[in-house]
Amino acid sequence: MTNAEGVLRVGISTCPNDTFAFHALLRGEVRVEGFEVEFELHDVQTLNERFRAGELDAAKVSFAALLDLPQQAWVLPSGAALGIGVGPVVLRSPRRDAAPQVLAPGEHTTANLLWRLFHPREAAPRQVVFSQIMPALARGEARLGVCIHEGRFTYREHGLELDEDLGARWEQATGAPLPLGGIAVRRRRGARAARALAEAIGRSLDWSRARPEAALASMRLHAQEHSDAVLWKHVELYVTDQTRALDASGRGALRELELRASAAGLAAPGGGALDVLE
């Protein structure tokens, strides 16, 4: 029996980019050297909440969820989702009688942070599980919704309209790729555990890239959308070279996000919340 110190509780999302990158780890094809891993799969806001509460040693979290936790976690150089053309979109209900409300996928999501950065005078959004937003808009329960994941590709199927691309707005304002989320590890687990997990994530991603059809099984099992074409489009967009290893532009984007959030009073002063493990 492995003792508790040798077990890492790791949470990832059900999104295709995560299940693709982590497939080999989930199936035991790749292991974290020196540690057993207990995986949990949740929606992004649940992961944010569980990591912030200290219930997970490591998790795929929104970068926004770390902004008031300076010096408590490292961002791993592997496993991140960021890039160009990957941002959340604001969708509009087609109903003229839609309730005058905005929906967002969670208080600590980067999508919610972007809405607050770019629309500071608007009322705070109502937070719901991301998969509920497009159906609610179609029913007219809200006027606008900040949508993530597959919503970027499938909103027309729900009869919805594109109101704004928050990722494009970020890119125009900063010239940087948009940092959505990454793998955070509690510093209390130590650098050895963090480095072992980072190395294993890289090998797991390499495994799936070499055997994409095998990884499709995990993607299909957990995805909200069931079209293989949508799943592969999601991987194409969100699994990039930055996912394998954050480069200088990716690390700069993290600093830019923290600086802008701090200037808006949406991050703890002093910085250090989005430090990347060296």
Could you characterize the architecture of this molecule?
The protein has 278 residues and is an alpha/beta fold. Helix 4 (110-118) packs across helix 7 (166-174) and helix 8 crosses helix 9 (212-222). It has helices at 16-21, 23-26, 44-52, 110-118, 133-138, 151-154, 166-174, 191-210, 212-222, 228-238, 241-244, 248-263; strands at residues 7-13, 36-42, 58-62, 73-75, 81-83, 89-92, 102-104, 126-127, 144-147, 161-165, 178-186. The protein contains twelve helices and eleven strands. Strands 1, 2, 3, 4, 5 and 11 form a six-stranded mixed sheet that branches. Strands 8-7-9-6-10 form a five-stranded mixed sheet. Strand 7, helix 4 and strand 8 (126-127) form a beta-alpha-beta unit.
What key attributes describe this structure?
alpha/beta, six-stranded mixed beta sheet, five-stranded mixed beta sheet, 278 residues, 12 helices, 19% strand, single chain, globular
SS class: alpha/beta
Task: Work out the helix count.
Answer: 12
Give the beta-strand count: 11
Main sheet record: 6 strands, mixed
Shape: globular
Radius of gyration equals: 18 Å
- Measured between the Cα atoms of the first and last residue, the distance is 31 Å
Mean pLDDT: 93
Low-confidence spans: pLDDT under 50, at least 5 residues?
none
How much of the sequence is in beta strands? 15-25%
